[in-house]
Fold this protein.
Amino acid sequence: MSPPRAYTHPEMDEIVLARVLYALSDPIRLEMVRRLSLAQEADSLDLADNLARSTLTYHTRILRENGVTFTRSHGRSCLISLRTDDLEDRFPGLLQSLLTSLEAEEPGIAKADGS
Amino acid sequence: MSPPRAYTHPEMDEIVLARVLYALSDPIRLEMVRRLSLAQEADSLDLADNLARSTLTYHTRILRENGVTFTRSHGRSCLISLRTDDLEDRFPGLLQSLLTSLEAEEPGIAKADGS
């Protein structure tokens, strides 16, 4: 069995506002963040519907590399969580404001269970 | 004298969160928004330092086309303002949260007068 894949993440002081906003500037990634906000941690496969695996990997990488999410491997799965505390320390209130805006844009969706 | 140039702007219901975040996903455009937040309206030339005119036009166009700013021509000038009320109606609290995050990232800069 090969060792679990290690993912690189920016340190907290490397998290830059412009890049966080870039990571969130795509409807697919916004939906991923919305689903993650409803779970402590999620399998990457549950973050989007009907995406090619390579596309899914691309979007989860953008979120990770820009400091929005934390990724770890677990067996054959790739588990992802929001870096809620890091983002809150770095940019107080921003993540909640973005989630509120997402809900303002698509009322009701944020109440779905994302499954 | 030629008539003033007319600029197109998205209607309020055409303002989309992902695109607003895209418009703000660049340090130059974030700085433009910061300066605009300190003024009711500003000449486009005052929104950035040492940018080629074509680069300046590119960035102000991205802000305008994604619903962040309003642009009007005035003589030979191009005057720009934040669509504060429209953004507040569409995404309550978001703009202020972004400005607060920008200040968290670069303390003190947001207190400069931008001139």
Observations:
- Chain A has a mean pLDDT of 90.
- The domain at 12-98 of chain A is CATH 1.10.10.10 (Arc Repressor Mutant, subunit A).
- Chain A touches chain B through 23 residues (CB under 8 Å).
